[in-house]
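Sequence design from tokenized structure. All designs in this work follow the same two-part layout: the structure record, then the generated sequence. An example of the structure record is given first.
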């Protein structure tokens, strides 16, 4: 049985339809083609960046977004990732970029990442990320509200510990005084009859 022109066209569209559908597990708003995930120029930020990508991703495009950092472990979760395009983002080179710098340090093809430069803070602006030392990134982090909260909690615990130690010392002093008073009273009760007997003997 032969196919007419209309039947042949329908069969061709049916065969091509799976190729035009997005890849399974492709995160919104990205586009996926095979193992290439394109999230470039989507206006993505730290908050709107997909939490995960397909584990078989070999190429990831994040260029032209508003990313200042990447969540820790995001790239480490892609075991076959060969290249990630990170240009065109306002990277803030502080302690939040330490995981990304560590990931870049393990890459053999470093030429792909030589264009990654810091947009902030001011003292590191224009520096190449892969050439920065980890200490420079950590030093760029100012103590935030979380750090101050942790410091306040530690100081509070220290104050409570000192107060507890002071109360314990006062209690021990009080116990020693009570023991000394009890010993003195016991000695007095033991010597009182003897003194009275000696006094009676001397009177007679």
């Amino acid at each position: 049985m032969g196919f007419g022109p209309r039947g042949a066209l329908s069969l061709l569209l049916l065969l091509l339809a799976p190729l035009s559908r997005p890849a399974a597990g492709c995160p919104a708003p990205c586009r996926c083609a095979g193992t290439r995930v394109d999230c470039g120029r989507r206006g993505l930020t730290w908050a709107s960046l997909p939490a995960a990508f397909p584990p078989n991703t070999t190429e990831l495009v994040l260029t032209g977004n508003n990313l200042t950092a990447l969540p820790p472990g995001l790239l480490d979760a892609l075991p076959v990732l060969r290249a990630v395009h990170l240009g065109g983002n306002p990277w803030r080179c502080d302690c939040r970029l330490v995981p990304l710098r560590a990931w870049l340090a393990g890459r053999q093809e470093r030429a792909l990442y030589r264009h990654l430069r810091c947009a902030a803070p001011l003292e590191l602006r224009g520096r190449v990320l892969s050439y920065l030392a980890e200490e420079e990134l950590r030093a760029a982090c100012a103590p935030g509200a979380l750090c101050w909260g942790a410091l306040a909690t530690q100081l509070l615990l220290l104050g409570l510990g000192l107060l507890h130690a002071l109360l314990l010392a006062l209690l021990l002093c009080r116990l020693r005084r009570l023991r000394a008073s009890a010993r003195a009273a016991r000695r007095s009760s033991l010597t009182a009859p003897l003194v009275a007997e000696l006094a009676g003997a001397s009177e007679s």
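Residues 11-23 have pLDDT under 50 and may be disordered. We note this feature because it recurs in several other targets discussed in the main text.
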